[in-house]
Amino acid sequence: MARPSRLLLDPLGAVGGAVMDIATHLGAVVTLLVRVLRSLVPPRFDLPELWRNLYKMGNQSVPIVMLTAFFVGGIMVVQSAVFMKRFQATSLLGWGAGYSVLREVGPILIGLMFSGRVGSNNTAELGTMVVTEQIDGLRALSIDPMRYLIVPRVLAMVIMLFLLTVLGDLVALFGAMLFGKLIIGLEFGVFYAGLVSSLGVSDLTHGLVKALVFGLIIALTSCHFGLNVKGGAVGVGRSVNSAVVGSALGIVLSDYFLTYVLT
Amino acid sequence: MIRLKGVHKRWDRPVLDGLDLHLERGVVWGLIGPAASGKSVLLKTVCGLEKPTSGEVWVDGQEISGMDEREMMKVRRKFGMLFQNNALFDFMDVGQNVAFPLVRAGGVDPEEIEERVASRLKAVGLSGSERKMPNELSGGMRKRVGIARATIASPPIVVYDEPTAGLDPVTTSKIYDLLRAIQDQSHATVMAVSSDINALRTFVGRIAMIYQGRIIYDGLESELDGCQDPVVHQFIRGELEGPL
Ligand SMILES: Nc1ncnc2c1ncn2[C@@H]1O[C@H](COP(=O)(O)OP(=O)(O)O)[C@@H](O)[C@H]1O
Ligand SMILES: [Mg+2]
């Protein structure tokens, strides 16, 4: 309600305010990254917490990511099958699906899914711990929340998104292959040949580097917004919202740069 | 034991505004004051959880406001703290929560920890609740778990932030009985904040009032009623007319 009117009355001020806002958060996220890195050399963090988080995050995200990946692979085929058939280029289907899934669609969609499922949950959990003074409680008991809470979560999220992307890529390609057979009757062998003959290791690594960066972005963003919750339960909701939006923005922007840098 | 000299703490406005305080070893000190007057901030500043904007904080002969987090951790071991929101770890059960300070301190073997947790839970009237999770407990039970955790390692300084907030009068009396019983055994230095002035007065020997970032009264509990300061006068009687 206050936002649109400000945008009309004072457009420069409103845009300037938003830019300042983003810059502040970006600065805080970079500071958080530095603190995480400092606890990693030498590695000083809670190993059981890392395992606990990997297990939990895997449980939360594997089914939903697999389901998404399968249908994403399918949709790629549905969208392109008509043209491939018209130009009698169905043997390119494997290449087309593989190229876009491995480099772009896989990492981005799985990243966004992961952010919505695991990142938001992470923000809510940390935010609740702030509001109920559990973070102060840890510090009062001489526990460094950085090593005990944040670093294990950041590591777990980076590792988990990487693994999910590998797995999701495979499932998406499998989905594409299956839909190719169902929709235009493309033999598995032809699809597979198209896939392996024209795609290289670089296509795979391209996507996996993205997955690592996206994982880091989601992890840092969700931790940052969780740790900076203000104002009780309402504040937690607001922070979760900001974390999801912030992660999505970070993923899309960094994807743009990474695509340039990596090709 | 604890000394604050000219402590200021401000965020967007000053919360502590040149606050001085001195507590001798073994004193049981109560703090009252209006909502959002900085009572919790004062306690957290003493424990080193908040850094003052300026001023000195001395704990047991050490100035802590200039310390880094690592040095501060050693100082915090001297404190047992009950937080206003209890701060029970919701990913641990009651037994693990209460045992945590002992586990952290190290050097206590698991059987002894188990025994001490059981006896501490018995002391707060929660025998056999070790395997319950904090979210299965009522508000009063959570407070009591928080008290058990704050005192299990027998710290020389214990800080209670609103030990009875949101509890009914009978539970409130029981909690203060419990605090008294713990104090009779431990003889710790105690700082207690409460909005329930009358119940708090049954527990403390010395009482202070914070207002606009400063201590405006600090004296024997028995002399509080005779205080002529109009703010204190109005606050402890809950009158509508007055400067507040
Ligand atoms: N971390 C913080 N950031 C900004 N303001 C804070 C913070 N902690 C406390 N405050 C402010 O300090 C004031 C005193 O808070 P507090 O000590 O919790 O009051 P109370 O006396 O009720 O315990 C409040 O106005 C509160 O908003
Ligand atoms: Mg308070």
Cofactors and ligands present? adenosine-5'-diphosphate, magnesium ion
Sum up the overall morphology of chain B in one term. globular
Residues in helices of chain A, as a percent range: over 70%
Strand tally of chain B, please?
10
What structural class is derived from the secondary structure elements of chain A?
mainly alpha
Low-pLDDT residue spans of chain B: none
Helix run count of chain A: 9
Q: Sketch the topology of chain B as an H/E string, one letter per element.
A: EEEHEEHEHHHEHEHEEH
Computed CA radius of gyration of chain A, to the nearest angstrom:
21 Å
Oligomer: heterodimer
User: What structural class results from the helix and strand content of chain B?
Assistant: alpha/beta
Ranges of chain A where pLDDT stays below 50 over 5 or more residues in a row are none
Mean pLDDT of chain A: 91
Question: Which chains share the greatest interface?
Answer: A-B, 15 and 21 residues
Task: List the SSEs and their pairings.
The complex is a heterodimer of chains A (263) and B (244).
Chain A: H1 2-9, H2 11-38, H3 47-86, H4 93-131, H5 134-140, H6 145-184, H7 188-198, H8 201-227, H9 232-262
Helix pairs in contact in A: 1-2, 3-4, 3-6, 4-6, 4-7, 4-8, 4-9, 6-8, 8-9
Chain B: E1 2-10, E2 14-23, E3 28-32, H1 39-46, E4 54-59, E5 62-63, H2 69-76, E6 79-82, H3 94-105, H4 110-123, H5 139-151, E7 157-161, H6 169-186, E8 189-193, H7 197-201, E9 206-211, E10 214-220, H8 230-237
Parallel strand pairs in B: 3-8, 3-9, 6-7, 7-8
Antiparallel strand pairs in B: 1-2, 1-4, 4-5, 9-10
The structure holds adenosine-5'-diphosphate and magnesium ion.
Q: How would you describe this protein?
A:
The complex is a heterodimer of chains A (263) and B (244). Chain A has one domain. Chain A is globular. Chain A is an all-alpha fold and 263 residues long. Chain A starts with a helix and ends with a helix. In chain B, 35% of the residues lie in helices and 24% in strands. The model of chain B has no long low-confidence stretch (mean pLDDT 93). The chains are: A mainly alpha (263), B alpha/beta (244). Chains A and B meet through helix 4 and helix 5 of A and helix 2 and helix 3 of B. The complex binds adenosine-5'-diphosphate and magnesium ion. The site of adenosine-5'-diphosphate has 10 residues of chain B, from helix 1.
